[in-house]
Write a structure and sequence with these properties.
Blueprint: H1 2-26, H2 31-55, H3 59-83
Helix pairs in contact: 1-2, 1-3
C-alpha cells in the first residue's frame, strides 16, 4: 500500500507538472491567469490522477498507462522548449 501511495503522489505530480507545462506552452494566456489556472487546475488534476492510480488493482497496468503518457508529455515539453527563442 505504501508503494502505491508513493507512486500515486510522485508519478501523479510529475504527470501533472508535465501536462500543466504543456497547457502553458500551447495556450497564449497571461502569466497571472496561468498562475491561477495552474494552481487550481493543477491541484484538481493531481488529485484526479492520484485517485485514478488507486483504482488500478495491478501496478503493472498502472505503469503501462502512466509511463507512456508521461513520456509523450515530456517529449512534447522538450520539443516546445527547444523551439522557443532564447
Amino acid at each position: 500500500m505504501w508503494f502505491r501511495t508513493l507512486l500515486a503522489v510522485f508519478l501523479a505530480g510529475a504527470l501533472n507538472s508535465s501536462l500543466m507545462l504543456n497547457v502553458a506552452l500551447l495556450t497564449p494566456i497571461e502569466r497571472a491567469n496561468y498562475a491561477l489556472l495552474s494552481f487550481v487546475g493543477g491541484f484538481i488534476l493531481w488529485s484526479a490522477l492520484a485517485t485514478v492510480f488507486y483504482c488500478y488493482i495491478n501496478l503493472k497496468q498502472l505503469l503501462i498507462i502512466a509511463l507512456p503518457t508521461l513520456l509523450a508529455s515530456a517529449s512534447l515539453n522538450t520539443f516546445f522548449a527547444l523551439r522557443m527563442p532564447s
